[in-house]
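Lab notebook, page 48
Experiment: co-folding of the full assembly
Goal: obtain a model of how the components sit together before planning crosslinking
Operator: M.T.
Materials (sequences as entered):
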Amino acid sequence: MEKSKHLITDRTSIFSSVLVMAVIFLLSPEVYAHGVDANTKQFLLANQGVAIGPFLYIGSKHMVTGYDHLLFLLGVIFFLFRTKDILLYVSLFTLGHSLTLFFGVLGNIMVNPYLIDAIIGLSVVYKGFDNLGGFQRIFGFQPNTKAAVLIFGLFHGFGLATKLQDFALPEQDLWKNLLAFNIGVEIGQFLALLFILILLNFWRRFNSFYGFSVITNTLLMTGGLILFGYQMTSYVLNV
Amino acid sequence: MNDSNIPVQSLKTLIISMLSAVFLAFVLLITVVGPAEFGIDPTGLGKMMGLTILAKPLEKNAKTVVSCPAGVELENWLDIVVITVPEASGLEYKFHLNKDAKLEYAWTTSGDKLYFDFHGEPQGDTSGYFKSYKEATDSQFKGALAAPFTGSHGWYWENKTQTPVRVTLKTKGQYTVKGLM
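Observation: model returned without errors.
Model output:
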């Protein structure tokens, strides 16, 4: 009894410190899911040549502050319990978005950023639905979850690519800046995952994890639908 | 095939969950996201909560500067920038020059005439003093300046039309770019 009480205080303190971090993060004024903030914009417009440091930073910042990517990742790892599985799925996501980020920017493939972000919103809805066992219950089969994460990874990569394509980046040594941006994205993803996993692992110790998993995934779908609606409205207004 | 143990919910739970997600998303989009992001506020709740202030009219206030634009030859200029002055607003673009330093310049607009004031402000001055070198309304302007004092020198452009006007500014001389102000 004594021991468990001690454990709970311990957990509470971890939880509260994580909560404080979350609040600070949410209050930071420069959190954007779409596009980049004014300072970054100025840098990207003025930049010439190779700038490894700044692109690393922009990449990781984009990931850490991009709630569309984060919601999707949360959905993907929600029911993954083994480290091996988490690594596998996150690697598939990374493979997917790296491929399209490079091909998108280097091949100068123009995709409408609003439509791409709308699809990213739908990827969140998909994962929430999947986590409720929706495919098995309604359609009687389970689509390959690895394939899904890879395919949606491709769309997320196009989303990253469109953010950079907004700026006519200098052709010279473009791939070096891109590589730096991509590595930055992975660093940001790693940090964000760490954060999500700490929260998830903590929560999984309680029965409420399963009790609330329906609500959580419903909210995930809600979030995805809001992103979808937001991006589609922007698309319609900007045509 | 499937490594995750996803608990399959009952059909009833699924339907309730889906309907709630759609309903909640719809309500939040109409009452919060729409008013705050786009100024679209069918329920009037957004205005009540003061959210519509956040929505800026689309494409307005897009002050942009593009350095070394594609398709423009540098020739013997040091810098070429394209500055977009949004409709019905003004902006300043400045250079830092030491006393007697030279700035050669030539700019043209994408068509419409702009009101401009070419002026300088001494470094460290807080009184708001500035010296005007040229004030006019035109679609082009060129010349050279020998800075009468150390400080920021540059243009204020005002676009009185209802469409954005692009200014292509070519410069050379002994200056550092301060950029958009």
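Interpretation: Residues 59 and 182 of chain A are 6 Å apart (CA to CA).
Next step: discuss with group before ordering constructs.
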